[in-house]
Amino acid sequence: MRWHNASLFIPSDMILNGKKVQEKRLEILKEQIDESGFTPRLATVIVGNDPASELYVRMKHRACEQVHIGSVGISLPESAGTKEVIREVQVLNRDPEISGILVQLPLPSHIDTIQVIEAVLPEKDVDGFHPVNLGRLFAGNPVYSPCTPQGIMTLLNEYQITTEGMHAVVMGRSIEVGRPMAALLLSANATVTITHSKTQNLPLITREADLLVVAIGKPRYVGPSMVKEGSVVIDVGTNRIDGVLCGDVDFDRVKDHTSAITPVPGGVGPMTIASLMENTFLAAKRSLCTGAW
User: Fold this and answer.
1) Residue 60 annotated to the active site
2) Which of 125, 127, 210, 235 is catalytic?
3) Annotated catalytic, 235?
4) N or C: which end of the chain has fewer CB atoms below 10 A?
């Protein structure tokens, strides 16, 4: 394992500071956008009034302002059906001024999420969830990778944590994080194991991980007994206990067993937004390339 950029690395507690890396990446991106002459524009679609989803959308629009990406927000009522959401997506598909489209997940349970995701044009799918983009990712030739896994890879690269040759264990098999995370790590020459709710002898597997990525939605589930000494631990979880935000890893008990660990908040979350901004700029550039798709 190699480390660099001491200004980002905190030797005292070995925390991977996603917020600081995000600030660096967004500042670079803003300069690239200003110099490019492009006018990228992101459209978000949100259904209902879930407070967490509304917060995430606001954060994405603030990031757009920060890097000089235009943005438009489409808000639909909780009662909106699948066809209504798809109609809004199709309007955005046809709008040449919209570079990227993000449908905020999760959608209400009565909406067919798969149909909505598939309605987004692959070339505007900056979330990376369309089957075309996922297929390219798993084929080892991605265009837009899902933002959270891509953000994790960027964070590791910024700290020069080399995944080549590592045994990486991914806890969780969601299409948003677990499966694309495994694909990116495999492309980066890690040996990858995916675990899930039906995995037997889970601690035996996680203790073999040089790199452990935890995305299971169970607050503080991973303790020291599940972590290999000196490993790198990436916590994707976002949970609230008594109003306090925490991850899927018991941070205070695990951090002394690791060589590097992400906090919650301030770890993976900021990198997800940075990746979304980078994907949107990429979409704007690719829209001007004849035959890009």
Assistant:
1) yes
2) 127
3) no
4) C
CATH architecture of the domain with range 146-269: 3-Layer(aba) Sandwich (3.40)
Task: Give Cβ neighbours of residue 16 (< 8 Å, ≥ 6 apart).
Answer: 9, 155, 159, 234, 260, 261, 262, 263, 267
> Of residues 104, 228, 235, 250, which has the active-site annotation?
104
- Whether 124 is catalytic: no
Q: Can you give the pTM of this predicted structure?
A: 0.93
pLDDT of residue 204: 98
Per-residue model confidence (pLDDT) at position 286: 95
Stretches where the chain sits below pLDDT 70 are 1-13, 290-293
List the domain boundaries for the chain. 37-122, 146-269
Backbone angles phi, psi at 27, to 5 degrees: -65, -40
Torsion sign (Cα): 236, 25, 285, 68: positive
What is the per-residue pLDDT for 14? 83
Virtual torsion, Cα 71, 149, 180, 121, nearest 10 deg: 10
Of 20, 60, 124, 255, the catalytic one is 60
Q: Would you give the DSSP letter of residue 227?
A: S
- Could you tell me which CATH number the domain at 37-122 has? 3.40.50.10860
